[in-house]
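Collaboration report, partner site 2.

Our partner group contributed sequences for two proteins of shared interest, and the home lab folded both. The records are reproduced in the order in which they were received, starting with the first partner submission.
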Amino acid sequence: MKKLILALIVLIAAAGATLYLSPAAQLSAYHTVEQWRAGLHERSVTVNDLDISYYEGGPQGAETVLLVHGFGADKSTWLWFARELTERYHVIAVDLPGFGASGRPHGSYDVGTQAERLAAFVDALGIRRMHLAGHSMGGHIAALYAARYPEQITSLALIANAGVDAPRRSPFFQRLEQHGDNPLLVDSEPQFDELLDWLFVAPPQLPERLHQYLAQRAVADSAHQREIFEHLQQRYLPLEPELPRITTPTLLLWGDQDRILDVSSIETMKPLLKDVSVVIIKGCGHAPILERPQESAADYLKFIDQASQHTAEGRKAASTNQ
């Protein structure tokens, strides 16, 4: 009963915020409600003189799940997905350096450098073993991490990940290569609407003031995001040579209508991975964790439950043979 009353108070406060607060405060209030619903708390840690922001929730003694966001995003993109995990898993969703509330270091933002920054973050939190999941650019980083630090990984989930040469060129890459125009970079408010159309089959319907605020924020951050994208291109690390080094159970999860990174990427990756599962969500775009969070989280939970059982059985067998 106390939890129900608290929930009503929080929701009423959030509803009031939509009427009286600035769009920035509305967004903050909304995220606060969603954090509470997901059982997550915002924390920070300083790693190599760099402040790293992250969400943390779920039972402390449970297996850890580390979630890594994509390009132009931040840890909040995992809120609705993570809500399905925190009852049974210790969940961490990180703001990569250069994104969200984390610091913006001098130097490169290429995936190799970010993978090492992620390793330093994991070490600072004392995580010895984990389920690792990444979306888009975050999937590229997660795959590199799993190849470099296999002893830390119980399972790997790559959700519409970058880093491979797909048999079919996506509309995004066709436009980028033919016109040099990157729809992920927002230089005007109308381009923000176009970005949503690129990312989703059914773009979210946002309140007008909040929509305008998010568009203006994207425009204001465009130069920084452009710099990051240039680093990703200039110091590109293909995953094809790395994937055979990954021995942990791996999930490839994609939306069948992804216009950014074509679903045919799975055809490239599947033969290179030793223990692979595939889930393709019908009628979904580039961001299943946002467009279909409950469905994608259910598929992910099934996968990591099986991976945990497989690991436990392997350890038991190894102990018996000693």
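Second partner submission, folded after the first:
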Amino acid sequence: MSDQKIVSLCKGLPKNLSYNGKDFLSGIGKDEASELVVRFAKIDEDDVANHAYHGGPDRVVCAYPFEHYAHWEKKFGQRLTQSAFGENLTMSNMTEEQVCIGDIYQIGDTILQVSQGRYPCATINKRNNNNLLLKAVVETGYTGYFFRVLQEGTIKPDSAITLLTPHPKQVTVASIHHLYFHNQSLSEETISTMLEIEELSLPWKKKLIEKQQQLAKGTVHAN
């Protein structure tokens, strides 16, 4: 993988947004930042509104591939705003097909590890005033992903991105998404390999165990 670049940095505290005439509190509305000060628990001046479903040490930094913006703008004929998916890092050449669970990156002087793909929710529809977006994100697997923090530090717009340690299992963010949501490559062997990745976040391990149990009962089949 080469030429990974930061396209934008964004952060923001929860605030009231509006959708279909109704206000809702969310941390998805982020603004451009000159730097991200990244701590083990969270990014300074950045937070989520619902801690029951968002945030935590395995989901400190949210990343979204820049390449997907052109896809969505063409598909829906709308111009997307910066950090349209509530991400902190918009990056090029780091798609869900290229990034693996457990990969360790240095970005600026932070060291980050890919912990999970994003489990998208309807807030992205509200953020972009598009009630078809969530379904399309799930279908494509263009979800983005999260990092946990191994070393605190600062990320700037021109910070270099270096893959320090690729995970030996080489299980991509995309492959786990498509197995869970679409039963793609579904098998006991594939699920077992994914569950062997210690670095995969607990919520996603639970999702895979759920799928494993369904497979054992014969209630799901590979596509």
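Feedback sent to the partner group on the second submission included the following. The chain has a mean pLDDT of 95. The chain has one domain: 5-169.
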